Amino acid sequence: MFNYYPMCRIWPLLLMGGLLLPGLQHVSGIEVYTPGEVEAANGTDVKLKCTFTSSHPLSPQSVTVSWNFRPIIPGSDESVFYYQGIPYPPLEGRFKGHAVWSGDITRGDASITLHEVPPTFNGTFVCQVRNLPDVHGKNGEITFRVVDKVTFSDISILAIIIGSACGVILLLFTIFVAVRFYRRRGMENDIELRPRDQEWKDPTVCTLEEAVHLKVVEKKKEAESSDDEESEPSSGDDDEEEDEEEDDDDDDDDDDDDDDDDD
């Protein structure tokens, strides 16, 4: 009896759970995913991405997609696009000719593309997806903002300014590196030349070539001095011989004069 009483209390709970479980599965929510914010340049095309998941099989006949627009200025929502089996683009309003289907229901994609967006598209886009019997879930919202289109001239000017600045910086860096390199090289050359300068300036040190040259010069000087010494006596003898010849000539003249007198 003790064990039977708790089981009597558990059975009703199990029965209620069995009845509620199918109902919970039946109302399970659909999940919709969108980017929080999208920004586009004025006059360009932009894709508003919206994906979803569902616990039930996906087919174009069972899935419905509704895109609505909520402007920045308070007002009523506007229909942007509708899909059920086939796409239904808007036939009037600000989105006529701008909104086209870009999704794939079988892959859980309910995206649309807006062509040539103007500033009047600033606002909030709402993506609502239902897949019967899976109809519960939150909608996806995108805050959309249209910015001024950058012209080609502005881009060119900006590119030229940036390129010129980079070129100047690169040139200055190259000059700085080159100056440092040549300075370091000059210092190394000075360090290498200093010992040689000291050797050249030292009068007590001479190379083998210098020693040979000095030896040759000394020999030449000795030879010249010896030639000078030999040439001095010879010059004296020559003078004596010249004097003797003059004396002989004088004697001959005297003899000739005496012969003339005798005659």
Quick structural gist:
This protein has 263 residues and is an alpha+beta fold.
Give structural notes.
It is a single chain. With 263 residues, the chain is an alpha+beta fold. 49% of the residues lie in helices and 21% in strands. It is built from 3 helices and 11 strands; from the N terminus they run H-E-E-E-E-E-E-E-E-E-E-E-H-H. A 6-stranded mixed sheet has the order 2-11-10-5-6-7, with no helix packed on it. Strand 6 and strand 7 form a beta hairpin. The longest helix has 55 residues. The radius of gyration is 61 Å and the shape is rod-shaped. The termini are far apart.
Unreliable parts: 1-8, 11-15, 17-27
Shape: rod-shaped
Terminal CA distance reads 213 Å
The fraction of residues in strands falls at: 15-25%
DSSP strand tally: 11
Question: What's the main sheet like?
Answer: 6 strands, mixed
Order of helices and strands: HEEEEEEEEEEEHH
Key descriptive features of the protein:
263 residues; alpha+beta; 6-stranded mixed sheet; 3-stranded antiparallel sheet; 3 helices; 21% strand; rod-shaped; disordered N terminus
Write the layout of secondary structure elements.
Blueprint: H1 4-26, E1 31-33, E2 37-41, E3 46-48, E4 51-53, E5 63-71, E6 78-84, E7 86-88, E8 99-101, E9 112-114, E10 123-131, E11 140-147, H2 152-201, H3 208-262
Parallel strand pairs: 2-11
Antiparallel strand pairs: 1-4, 3-9, 5-6, 5-10, 6-7, 8-9, 10-11
